[in-house]
């Protein structure tokens, strides 16, 4: 009947009996079942069921679990929500349901009513979806169901393990995608519910989660962490609220509890702390809490006074020192390592004499010989010497960088100005100091009469003072740094002292000085009665930079173009 040249005519009642027999469930295995389904699919493609009742056919194939045929029939009827149920009931193709739902909801071919039916079907079967794949369910919810997360969470509340599995997948997927904008509108109570479930199932991960995540309410999350006694997370939230001392006390209490558990489980007959069951976990907890407390103290000590800083560090040091007296000699070495770690963390935040005095007052050290604490004290001194050397080196480098330019310019300023010629560069007349005309000499070696230099417009008024520019250097166009030779020396017949003009903030900005240099120059100008001489240094800096740069070949005075006439045109 499925062949194109079909000539078989079957009685309707007989055809229905054969179809029912084909769709009847059998116990012949999956292979036989798939063979029956494929035969029926070919029959439908050939048009052999055109006159058969579609409702009756759907009833038969659903009873036979022919889900591929069900999918075809439901797609023809635009019953997309039932197609989803076909995928969920088909154990072979259940993983395709996520791609199908996303394709349907994000497409434009379906109406809003049809999409709403699919959404309701997803919410109804959320348990099955999470069981199939929690990660794919999380991706589907983040892309299409962000506004329905609260409803979905409420539906899964009777099954906390399944809910925690889904929420963990949602937040891990959100972190992997970098917290994209379309995924950032997760409500705060969903965050807090996830934190509460994490406190019940995996409390060690709570601190890391709240440190790297935002979007939760601090007070509510703090109450949850306190309820389940998650110390590190509680301390972080208290520090975020500004309660530093309270956060430190929480961690200190956790440290004392862990040390007590360690001492209780350590038997004197054991040689190592890891010999008893669970010893590694307890010791790792102690190391983790101490590291967290050291970082807490280091972050907040610079913002505190010396007394408050010592109130943080010394209880931690006392606790670690006291623990050495509660265990045998083999385990005491491990706590001495922790003591050294705490002392290294204290360097730079607590005065060294106060630390030494605290150690000497400890009963574990005050009654012994120096050899018992020799290694500890020498380690402290090594750390102190290292930090002292590091500080001096940094200061020397900073001072050298700050004053290097000023020293270089001062040395250059001591050199005399050597004129290139004894005539004016404009009028070519000789320069005589004894005449009434003033003479202006620039550091580039060019000299002019003041009257000659005024005519080309080489004089400007900056902050009420005259600023001169070398005519020849500016006309060559060698750049703003070398052309603006503002600093000059005037030679007058009245034997007046040379008065170089003061440098303005505009000139200093051109000289690429730092803000602290500019401020220092302003302070010197206000402190001195005479005018500032830093204009000379600035001019030297410009000349020095211009001399180090590459000169343009076209700006070279000796450059000459050697042009040849074009070749005569030859007619063919």
How is this structure best summarized?
The chain has 572 residues and is mainly alpha-helical. It is 62% helix and 3% strand.
Number of strands: 5
Report strand %.
under 5%
Helix amount: 55-70%
Unreliable spans: 179-184, 269-275, 477-511
Q: Per the principal axes of the C-alpha atoms, what is the gross shape?
A: flat
Structural class, from helix and strand content? mainly alpha
- Note the main sheet: 3 strands, antiparallel
**Global mean pLDDT:** 76
Which strand order does the major sheet show? 2-1-5
Radius of gyration: 44 Å
Total helices: the number is 28
What is the terminal-to-terminal distance? 87 Å
Please explain how this structure is put together.
There is one protein chain. With 572 residues, the chain is mainly alpha-helical. Among the domains are: 245-414; 439-547, no CATH class. Helices cover 62% and strands 3% of the residues. The protein has 28 helices and five strands. It has helices at 12-23, 30-45, 54-64, 67-77, 80-89, 97-106, 112-124, 126-132, 134-144, 149-156, 160-176, 188-201, 206-212, 218-227, 231-241, 244-265, 279-300, 306-324, 329-346, 352-361, 363-366, 370-413, 450-454, 471-475, 480-483, 505-510, 515-527, 534-548, and strands at 439-442, 447-449, 459-462, 465-468, 488-491. The strands form two sheets. Strands 2-1-5 form a three-stranded antiparallel beta sheet. Strand 1 and strand 2 form a beta hairpin. Helix 5 runs antiparallel to helix 6, helix 17 runs antiparallel to helix 18 and helix 18 runs antiparallel to helix 19 (329-346). The model is unreliable at 179-184, 269-275 and 477-511 (pLDDT under 50).
